[in-house]
Design goal:
Number of helices: 11
Number of domains: 1
CATH superfamily: Cytochrome c-like domain
Radius of gyration: 17 Å
Structural class: mainly alpha
Distance between the termini: 51 Å
Oligomer: single chain
Strand content: under 5%
Helix content: 40-55%
Number of strands: 4
CATH architecture: Orthogonal Bundle
Largest sheet: 2 strands, antiparallel
Length: 220
């Protein structure tokens, strides 16, 4: 099973990378800082909660990989990720805007010299079995903060409720306003019950990572 998933991951990376950066736009974090006003209202407030399709904390994106952020925005724009608010925002952005914003948030709030553990803490036997079944480290790395490809997200320390909702979204089909279309993650998520996805989310959320919410003001 793990070998099969690894093969699929390799194929997806090979096919998805050119799409994400079709215009080869090089991001400028200084330009990005001037373009994030629409992001701050949710991602720049600690503890801010979304209410669609259920209540959960919006993801921390400061410190997230630029390529993953760019891929996510592109997916919202293309309808591969369904979310009315995020689609509206992503559709308003040019490829250069996406590159600038993504590069800005990758560097935002990073602490120079900070180090992360090479391996996540030992899980319970039950969680270890779930992690093995999903082959999670195959993409996200042994500590869930050093993905094997920059198009994959850092997930260590991310909000547990967000991770749970995100995982469930890969199981959602036939809903026009919610869900994510991704062959790899869809295949992984559909192996688990929602209760098991919640267990995985809780464990990953408890790990040490680089993600954070940096309070920001629109009036600067």
């Amino acid at each position: 099973m793990t070998k099969l998933l690894s093969t699929i991951f390799t194929l997806v990376v090979a096919s998805a990378t050119p799409f994400a950066f079709a215009q080869d736009a090089k991001g400028d974090p200084n330009a990005g800082e001037k373009k994030v006003a629409m992001c701050i209202g949710c991602h720049g407030i600690k503890g801010y909660q979304a209410s669609f399709p259920e209540v959960y904390k919006v993801p921390m994106i400061s410190g997230q990989g630029a390529k993953y952020i760019a891929n996510s925005l592109t997916a919202y724009r293309a309808g591969e990720r369904k979310h009315p608010t995020m689609k509206g925002i992503a559709t308003s952005l040019t490829d250069q805007d996406v590159a600038d914003i993504s590069t800005y948030y990758e560097a935002h709030g990073k602490t120079v010299g900070a180090s992360l553990p090479e391996k996540a803490s030992d899980p319970t036997d039950k969680v270890a079995e779930l992690l093995t079944k999903g082959a999670c480290v195959s993409c996200h790395g042994n500590n869930f903060s050093k993905p094997i490809d920059p198009s994959y997200p850092k997930i260590a320390g991310q909000h547990s409720d967000y991770l749970f909702v995100a995982l469930k979204s890969y199981k959602t089909e036939g809903v026009s306003t919610w869900g994510r279309t991704n062959g790899v993650m869809g295949g992984v998520a559909k192996q688990f019950t929602n209760s098991e996805l919640k267990e995985l989310a809780k464990y990953v959320s408890a790990q040490t990572g680089e993600l954070k919410t940096v309070p920001q003001s629109k009036f600067r």
